[in-house]
Amino acid sequence: MLMTTWTEESIRNLVNDAGALRDGQKLAQPPKWTSFGRDDAMAWGAIKGSGALPYQVSIDLSDMGSKCSCPSRRFPCKHAVALMLLVVADAVPRRDDPPDGVKTWLANRQRKRDAAENPPETSPDTKKAPDPAKQAKTEAARLKKVEAGVGELRLFLEDTVRRGLSDARIKDYNYWDKIAGRMVDAQMSPIAKRLRDLGGLPYRKKNDWLGDLVAEVSRLYALTEAYLKRETLSDGLRADVQVAIGFTVKQDDILANYPAVTDRWKIVGQIRQHEDSLIERRTWLYGETTRRYALILEFAHSSRPFTESYTVGHVFEGDVVYYPSAYPLRVAVKRTGISQRNTQFLTDWPDSVDAILDEFSAALALNPFLERIPVAAHRMYPTPSWLTDSQARRLPMKATGYTLDWYKAVVGEHRLPVFGEWDGNQFLLNGLQAEEGWICLTTP
Amino acid sequence: MPDDSLDIPAWAELLDQMMVGAEGEQAAILLKQAALTAIYRRAGKITPVAKNPPELHPAPPEILPPCKEREVSWALNLDRQMPQKLLIPSWFIVLHQNGKRVPHSFLPALLNLGKRAPDLCPLIMRVMGERGRWLVERDEDYALFKQAGLWTGAAAQITLKTLEEWQQDPRYIDWYNNVPEVSVSFRDSAVKAFEYAHTQIMEGLAR
Fold this sequence. Notes:
The structure holds 2 protein chains of 2 kinds. By secondary structure, chain A is of the alpha+beta class. Helix content of chain A is 36%, strand content 25%. Chain A contains 12 helices and 16 strands. The chains are: A alpha+beta, B mainly alpha.
């Protein structure tokens, strides 16, 4: 568990539900609470809601776990969020009379945590060892499904090209949704998502939608080729291809079987993307000594919080383990120390668009299926449409919802250090070092 | 850089062929050629030099420290309903007295508030900081902030009121007396919220 000094920023980072956050901020006013208090371990409060009795809220201050008697299905609910915000704002008085219910709840939580960290020893007879034969059978069945799925995808893509892309059917969402469904059946869900996204391409008001369609269709075809010839690939590239197709690797296996990299890891960026009710969170780290980027990739349902609060601008000592890849970026976190705020911006990052593109070329040479690379750069001038360097070379920016007026006010026509992701087409700006400090942009 | 010894088909030609369609094995060949060209295009992207690169005139550094963003959000939220709306000028005065300014990210909202409520402009000018003044100089949209006489007149007379003085304010009384009968409980809540907001501002702890 990353030990965090809780701040309003880290609370905002923890809560996935924008509605719970917004409503919680409105309730984070002392007059709205009939009673509240805290000690070192917990906070508690009672707040009037729509029911006859006030809702009872409890917070475990070690990890901001919470409990509330309201009927909301959000977790944390707006009442819990409000109490968290009041705690970090130091607006909750210290008391030595926590309600018995809160003490019991906290004790039960601690008991569960202790049990998880120290599972009881079981004898060899009672321990459930994995059945190798059963595992091999499951794996063989999975491989068979994927082989069939890859074959079906190849036929589909070839048929699409035979038909010609001027065929009106390719503009129908159903055309892509049907094959996407087949890919889900074949346990190739990343491919399914990419196919579904193609359905909307002609309607995105882009002049070059056909070029984008051809690029993506051909990339998918190349991926199937690579999968069929995976035994001829390097270990890293084979791993990349398998992940792109839909095979997952258990984090525990990564932690157990690959070497750890120790460093002081600065949290330089964090991007959340919503896909229906699922949230993908990409937290980018940069090792101060190793000078390497590391990506923590997590998923959570929109009604649940992420288990860790990684706050941009903080740094922690820790060990991470890189997933195998031809261009390693994704990591599993093995060990973390205390997270501290450190806004010192490192100085050895590039300051030209050419350097960014060179790095991307080098990355693609190692992994042609790479989606994006992290980019930190100095002396850049960001506007809603372009990221321009001092040589007047520029990268198109991905829309983030921030207005031109906001950029004018925050950037003030200065060249600044920035952080974001480059995917070969657009730069997704995630942060910039303005006069008032590091500003993290949220993605819409 | 692309390897000249490889035969990389031209992208435009590939797109034309893809539009028309292909027969038999030609489809698979087209897809492979497109994949090769696409990866080269992606890896070898060269961005042009901007035809009209921006001429930058960086804003001067700030003198005053910013208040917390949360405080500005809270203050702008007051604008949403009566009677809390009446307290916005007081918030600006206290911020100025505390030697602080509004953070840069809130300047557009602040300047637009001034456009909607010009009588607030003199107070806004006291808390907009050097960046706000720089924005006003550069943008014709904010020309009203440059009008002469902004530091005199009715706006300069705005002072901090006690709660008792607010209760005698004609605008407060007007709102209080015109709340419909059915909304009396709402009025009582709004009065409590007003009193709390007033206390927060006077203590310089707007949340």
